[in-house]
Amino acid sequence: MYETLNRILSRHLSSDEHEGVRGLWKGNVLNLLRTAPHKAVNFFSYDVYRKGLLRLTRNEKVTNVERFLGGAMAGMTATLTCFPLDVLRTRIMAPGGGLPSGAGLATALIRIVQAEGVGALYIGVLPAICSMAPSGAVFYGVYDLLKTAHLSAHPEARAAQREGRPAKLSAQRTLLYGALSGAAAELACYPLEVIRRHMQMQHLHVISGGKQGWQLQKAGKAVAARAAKHLTGKQRTASFRSASTQIWAHQGAAGFYSGVLPSVLQVLPNAALSYYAYEAFKELLDVKG
């Protein structure tokens, strides 16, 4: 694992476009503009769906049904709401994306809609939804299961619940369980993320007239670079089936997990801090449940 991490960092820092440590944060503003609303919609939707399902099932306590179904519905809601932001980020960051250098979100949005129609903002949405449904289910389900099991095993937490006081995790446990739930969700659904990125890269290949040589690793994930290697050059519409077939034909089953290590490592602190902030703000705002 150490050698893999060292190889990833060495490749970045020795590239022709060496930018030093600052280069590791290149495109972070665009990423924040995409991630912040997605997280907000995701967590808010989960609370709404979980409570709604609890009323519908008339259960006194949250069960796995509410956890996993609520998480799946929240993931799909956030994806449908915020997916165009992901497409815009990919197109802005990928040379050959059909946009002028230095284009902002507003410029990119106008150019894409005018030239390709609104549908272009949802290229790859099918695998994204297929990915986010189980990903959301695992992300929220695993965290809730770990949290419930931990609190149930501690007398102080059980006493607080009996007295009607909120039982909460320590900061360390919140970070740990958040990281574990994020890693579980990423590993479970990563192949669909690879297919989604591949579909977007196929689309860019078509609209650019088959130009090669893009530095697609800047599109946000290492899988984008993998996708570009095996584009056929034929002018055809990207589809779930064609993307899956190309990945399987050129890389086999391993291709669906190309770049999974850096992706999981990125998710660990992201998920941990997301859950920590979520729990902290719920306590600050006195949100029950």
UniProtKB/TrEMBL annotation:
Its main location: membrane. Gene3D superfamilies: Mitochondrial carrier domain. Pfam families: Mito_carr. GO terms for biological process: transmembrane transport. Signal peptide: none annotated. Belongs to the mitochondrial carrier (TC 2.A.29) family. This is Mitochondrial carrier protein. It comes from Apatococcus fuscideae. The lineage of its organism: Eukaryota, Viridiplantae, Chlorophyta, core chlorophytes, Trebouxiophyceae.
